[in-house]
Design a protein that fits this description.
CATH topology of the largest domain: Uridine Diphospho-n-acetylenolpyruvylglucosamine Reductase, domain 3
Low-confidence stretches: none
Mean pLDDT: 93
Shape: globular
Strand order of the largest sheet: 4-5-8-6-7
Number of domains: 2
Helix content: 25-40%
Number of helices: 11
CATH class of the largest domain: Alpha Beta
Oligomer: single chain
Distance between the termini: 64 Å
Strand content: 15-25%
Largest sheet: 5 strands, antiparallel
Length: about 300
Amino acid sequence: MIQKERTYFQPHSAEEAVNIAHKHENESCFIAGGTDVMVNKFQGNNEFSCFIDITGISEMKQISVQDNYLKIGSLVTLDNITKHTQIKNNFPLLIQAANAIASPVIRKTATVGGNLLCENRCVYYNQSTWWREAVGHCLKCDGDICIATGGKKNCFSKFVSDLAVALICMDSNIEVVEHGGSYIAPLENLYSGDGVNPHKLKKSTLIKYIHIPLQQDFRFAFKKLRQRESMEFSSLTTAVTRNKHGKIKIVLGGVDPRPVVVEGTHGNNEQDLIKQAVKKTRIVDNDVFSRQYRKDMISVFLNQSFQEIAV
């Protein structure tokens, strides 16, 4: 078997990593835990010839407090998230979300940044090369039709990051490093809503930190629908928070190519907020559970969640 030659870099700072990626813009991929990247590689869903190993960037493995925010490096593992004292004391929602991802073994290597950038999924896409060739290539793998809907314009592969659902519900920001500088933006702005290209970041940019606001006293409820308690990606993830000022935020995952976000206040009618959330989703039959079942479960989960966060 002829193997394609690949280039491997191991930078020691975020800036160095970004500069390397900028030089190899269309052929490079950052890799840390590799729990998503390597699976997609073996399924033939990526053909990167240049891997940039960022596991040597120690500053991105730290958790600290800065300017009334908890600052989490994107290379912190999911396992470390569940054990950190400040996160336990301030953001138990994040621990619940992390524990809902994959299995204990995978959580020891999977990173926060990797989960935020987890590739959108679909039962017609996340298959082996020969399987996709047999059924026909879809929009997400250079085909000309969405197999789930029969349409030729839009890919509705589902957004599946459970950490992102929890972090967006707590008004988190991301600190992004790019060639020539850096910036901070709301996490929810990262996602495009396009199933083929679900992230707005250039391939040469890097999420360095996640910033979560402190002293918000979040009450929360988190729920996830999947076939098994471990390993499975989300068929529906919901998070609901209310902060000390009465602001309510609903975030859904697994039912749209991007996170679905609905905001309100303590005085709003809860059923109206739930209806808004259901209406904003673009659910298609691209999951092991049917479209209608997942849609019905949104209302079930959100009604249960509002009961849990009630005073």
